[in-house]
Amino acid sequence: MTTVLPRTSREVRLARVPEELPVPTDFTVVETAPPAPAPGHVLVRNRHFQVFGGLRTLIGGGAEGTPVPGLRPGDALFGPAVGEVVVAPPDSSLRPGDLVTHLLGWREYALVPLAGCAPLDPAAEPVARLSSGSAAYGALTRLAGVREGDVVLVTGAAGGVGSLAGQIARLLGAARVIGTTGSPDKAARLTSELGYDAVLTGGSWRGEQDTAHREFSRQLTEAAPDGIDVLLDNVGGVQFTAAVAAARQGARFALVGALSGQLDPQGPGATAPTLIDTFGLVVKGVSVRGYTGVDHPEVEAEWHERFDGWLRSGDIRFPLTRFEGIDRAPRALQELTGGRTFGTVVVDLPGHG
């Protein structure tokens, strides 16, 4: 059987460094020749790719010191993707038609090193492989160690990590799960759809900081009058400051993101300064650790196994905001960084080539 190779491929490139938060005109969708098959590589037709907030840092000039390279004007964007194998080396276990995951999203066709792609279980839901749940699961199991009866606070609860983190915490035994988000509509969805006991809408990083801190601290005290045992932090800023004050003895804080800095339109998304009461951390014996997947390589497979099981049993929901077509990908990033999406943001690519 002869494989028909694509005639053209399109990809999203950075046109210029955004002046503030990214807008569609900061990017360009370019039609180019498809990548040619090469030894040790798999040619993949992408079906779906994830849009994630960390791109704000990578395109804003703040990637120095991060595990992934920054992007310059003219570079194609990248990120987690699910695609169908078009051409595979004859000595590999992959065959045309197989589904794989890899990190070369934001393009219709990708030439992926064999070591850079993983076959997808045919029984699994393909888009579920684009969840950010492994970060939430790893942070809650490896760093925070959620215990039966814990009170857990998840900041940025309506994002790709947070929308799963609260549910995971509950499945691990948490007695009360509190979230934060930026809008009442999202707060309502988090309680009605995802099982959060309470959701706080104060603590914005875009407003006056003293006022935001007082309002958020008041809400947190009402939601957790006896304090919190675990923090899964996606935000930082005044929300982290208030969490320290609310910590119980021996509380465990796991830091996954820093949206207060990443989504600050006045900076490159590379820093997230926070006022911390170190005396409070010492007296209460609070542990504070940052989570990165590279430090816990075993988590990914463990997460997928548990996530697949929870999805099949209906014990967990996987909220998505979907955009169709590569032309809409820049708009998807703008909607995400502007706080107008819910759950994991995915671009679906219809048949092409």
From TrEMBL:
Lineage top rank: taxon: Bacteria
Protein name per its UniProtKB record: NADP-dependent oxidoreductase
Chain ranges of the Enoyl reductase (ER) domain: 22-347
